[in-house]
Predict the structure.
Amino acid sequence: MQPVLVQIPTPWGTITIRYYGLMYVVAIIVGIVLTRLEVKRKGMPLSLDDILDFVLVTIPVAIVGARLYYVAFQWDHYSQNPLDIIKIWEGGLAIHGGLLGGALMLWVFCKWKKVSFWQFADAVAPSLVLGQAFGRFGNFMNGDAYGVKTDASWGLYFPKGTPAGDDELYGTFPQHPTMLYEMVGNLLIFGVLWWLRRYNFKNGFLVSFYLVLYSGLRFFVEFFRADALCLLGGKVCLQEGTGFFESLRTAQLISLTLFVAFLALILVRKLYQRVPAMSAHPQHQS
């Protein structure tokens, strides 16, 4: 695990390219390509420039939302070290905060371009979860989003100088590579969504199914996370012998809420039903 990919000396200083940042750049580029393919396939009145507009307005807000969410639950540290708030290259972007910011800007964008919110969300969903997979590889190289100690043969030792290696409880033990668990899970979810996209489900099914699948994955993986944001604060959820409620992470509560809410949405609105191609993708629908 090595956070830095390459360092390039220049007359103005050294340019450092980190895996963490590089993975986000790769995710954005791949996401633009795949979203453009889906928009064309669905016959939506959006050009490549429109998609670039969406990326330009959404990515910064999603990153800010992801960071503010993380900072809010780690306020004891950041209130004493306010300059650390901007150090996103060290990790600390919470996906649920990013989803909230991204959903808000997706709604604004769809109102701006006068296209269906649910239809465009379906077009974006596969790219989103694939981008999360790239991001988790960046976490692996960065040594964050790491797990508790394990006796399993696939447990990993993380080097000192990484968040995992410096963890006061587990840094000297082999740890669950939870970022890789989630990376593999995200790749599987992408495969499922990319396969299902060919069928004419009602608008909103694909993005709702993504949220159901990812929430289930995240709920499971959180049991093995060592850097989890604990529901009751501190590191209560990492203590042995705690009850089920005391061991819950904040991400688990949110994941459970999203799982139930969007599964109910799929069932109540019967989004799983297939419809004729022409009616499946209306071009103008709020």
About this structure: The chain has nine helices and two strands. The beta strands are 4-10, 13-18.
